[in-house]
């Protein structure tokens, strides 16, 4: 067999290996989507008056108030609800990021969990916390902002770099 023919065969085999690799990655996307759909983080306030359950995409799926919550001053209860809600939503975001990292992080050099923790720490002016999988008290998570800051009015808004964190 000629050297040119051997080279063509090797290139074709390499191409087939890449196709198989791509098929595997696409199969992993379906699994990743199923895992994300099952994300759930339940957080209870430190004194137990409020419990919030958040799911995929930060959707709040349950909010429970204890009898003791009704004895709190309205402003304090509101603050406890918001704080607990933010922690539950942040926990769900961290779980989702972990699933993305598990599926594609190594192959594509993604550090989604790290970026989520950095964004959460920056939003609240706190130090980054450990990933949820390494914390003793799950699912207590760092809080997530209640709303996004308003975009700037200038035309260069999208030239600031990464859309995942502020530059």
Could you describe the 3D structure shown?
The chain is mainly alpha-helical and 167 residues long. The protein has three helices and three strands, in the order αβββαα. It has helices spanning 3-37, 74-108, 112-124, and strands spanning 40-44, 50-55, 60-65. The protein has a three-stranded antiparallel sheet. Strand 1 and strand 2 (50-55) form a beta hairpin. The chain is elongated.
List keywords for this structure.
167 residues; mainly alpha; three-stranded antiparallel β-sheet; 3 strands; 50% helix
Instruction: Note the overall shape.
Output: elongated
What integer value in Å does the Rg equal? 22 Å
Task: Give the spatial strand order of the biggest sheet.
Answer: 1-2-3
Helix fraction by DSSP (H/I, runs of at least 4): 40-55%
The number of helices is 3
What percentage of amino acids are in beta strands?
Answer: 5-15%
- Which consecutive residue ranges, at least 5 long each, have pLDDT under 50? 130-163
Distance between the termini: 57 Å
Main β-sheet description: 3 strands, antiparallel
List the secondary-structure elements in sequence, H or E: HEEEHH
Write a short abstract of this structure.
This protein is mainly α and 167 residues long. Helices cover 50% and strands 10% of the residues. The longest helix is centred in the N-terminal third of the chain and has 35 residues, at 3-37.
In terms of topology, how is this protein built?
Blueprint: H1 3-37, E1 40-44, E2 50-55, E3 60-65, H2 74-108, H3 112-124
Antiparallel strand pairs: 1-2, 2-3
Helix pairs in contact: 1-2, 2-3
